[in-house]
Amino acid sequence: MIIFGWRTIVTKLGIVFKRLCDHCHNEEYWILNRVTKWFTLFFIPVIPYDSNYFFSCPICKYGFNLNTDQIKAFKPIAEINQLLMEGKINQDQYQVKLNEINGAVQNPLQSNKSDEAESSIKPELQYCANCGTLVAKEIKFCGNCGVNVIPN
Hints:
Layout: E1 4-20, E2 27-41, E3 44-56, E4 63-65, H1 68-85, H2 91-104, H3 116-119, E5 125-127, E6 134-136
Antiparallel strand pairs: 1-2, 2-3, 3-4, 5-6
C-alpha cells in the first residue's frame, strides 16, 4: 500500500516595507511569503511541483500574489531585513546592502509617488517580552508566539 498526496508549505521570507492594508486598514510592515506545493509520499514532502510568492498583511493575513517584477524587487529586501532581525548582519552591513538594492530596483507597488515606502524599509527592532524573538517595533503581534508585543 502506498500513501501519497499533496501538501502546501508557506515559508516566511521576511518583512519588506510598511504599507496600509486595504482590508483591515492597519499600517504595518508587510511580509513576503513563498507558497510551495509538494507531492508527498507517506506524508513526507518529496517533490515540489508549484511555487509562488505572496505578499501579506501581518495583522489580518490579507494579501496578494506577486508577479515576476515584484518578486525581483521584494525578495532581496525581505532577505536582508530577515538577516538583520536574526542578527546575522550588523547595521553597517545592512545599510550597505540596502543601498545596493535601492540603487538597483524600484518599488513596483508605488506609482510615481514619493519615496516614502523606500525610506521606511529599515525597520526599528524590539524583542518580544514573551519569547524573546526580534520583531519590528510597529508589529503589534509576535509572529513566533502570537502575543501582543505593544503594551496597552
